[in-house]
Write a structure and sequence with these properties.
The protein has helices at 4-17, 22-37, 46-62, 64-72, 74-88, 95-110, 126-137, 169-185, and strands spanning 112-119, 141-148, 155-160, 163-168. The longest helix is centred in the first third of the chain and has 17 residues, at 46-62. The mean pLDDT is 85. It folds into two domains: 4-107; 111-185, Glutaredoxin (3-Layer(aba) Sandwich). By secondary structure, it is an alpha+beta fold. Strands 2-1-3-4 form a four-stranded mixed beta sheet. α3 packs across α4 (64-72). It is built from eight helices and four strands, in the order ααααααβαβββα. The chain is elongated and about 70 Å long.
C-alpha cells in the first residue's frame, strides 16, 4: 500500500541530509512533476526512468542558467533523483499526493496554517483576517484560500485544519428554523 506521507518524509530527509533547502526542493519537485505529467502516455519502469533522466539533464544543460542552478543547488538534484525513483518504482501516479504531504509537513514545521475561507461577498482586507487567525492559532504564517459562495447569503465559513467556524447567515437561519420547529412541535404553549 502506498503511503504518501512516508515518501514525503523521505524526500524532506533527503533534502536535509544533503544540504538542500526544503522550499526550493518542493518547488523543484512540483516543476519537474508537472513536466513529467505532461508527457504523453504512462511513464514507469527502469528504462523509462533512465530515458527521462537523460532527457531532463540534456534539456537543462542546454540552458546555461539551469545547468549552473543544477550544479549549485542540491535541492534541484535531489528533486530530480526523487522523481526518477518514483518513476522506477512505478509510483509516479502518486506524485501529487506526495507533493501535498510534503507541503503539509513543511507548513507544520514552519508554523504555517492553511485556511479555507468561503464568503458571500469578498472581504475588504484579508490581512486583518490573517492576523486574527495568527493570534487565535499561534501560527507564524497563514495561507488563505478564499472563494465566493453566494449560498451563504451573508457572513463566512472558515476552515482551519479540522476546525470549522460557520458564521454564515444561512447557518444562522437553519439554527433559527430548528429552534422554531422544536418549539412548535414540542408542544410549547
Amino acid at each position: 500500500m502506498f503511503v504518501s506521507g512516508r515518501w514525503a518524509a523521505a524526500f524532506i530527509n533527503s533534502l536535509a541530509g544533503r544540504g538542500g533547502e526544503a522550499k526550493e526542493g518542493l518547488d523543484a519537485l512540483k516543476a519537474l512533476a508537472s513536466w513529467v505529467k505532461a508527457l504523453p502516455g504512462d511513464v514507469f519502469g527502469s528504462s523509462a526512468a533512465k530515458k527521462l533522466e537523460k532527457l531532463i539533464r540534456e534539456g537543462m544543460a542546454k540552458t546555461r542558467d539551469s545547468a549552473e542552478l543544477m550544479n549549485s543547488d542540491p535541492a534541484l538534484e535531489i528533486a530530480l533523483r526523487f522523481l526518477i525513483l518514483m518513476v522506477k518504482k512505478n509510483m509516479i501516479r502518486h506524485i501529487d499526493s506526495v507533493i501535498e504531504e510534503t507541503k503539509k509537513i513543511l507548513d507544520k514545521k514552519n508554523g504555517i496554517v492553511q485556511v479555507s475561507l468561503e464568503y458571500a461577498s469578498p472581504p475588504g482586507d484579508e490581512s486583518r483576517i490573517k492576523e486574527a487567525i495568527k493570534k487565535r492559532t499561534g501560527a507564524v504564517g497563514v495561507e488563505l484560500e478564499g472563494r465566493v459562495n453566494p449560498e451563504l447569503i451573508g457572513g463566512y465559513r472558515l476552515q482551519i485544519g479540522d476546525e470549522i467556524i460557520d458564521a454564515s447567515v444561512r447557518s444562522q437561519l437553519r439554527k433559527l428554523e430548528t429552534c422554531l420547529t422544536a418549539g412548535i412541535g414540542g408542544g410549547g404553549n
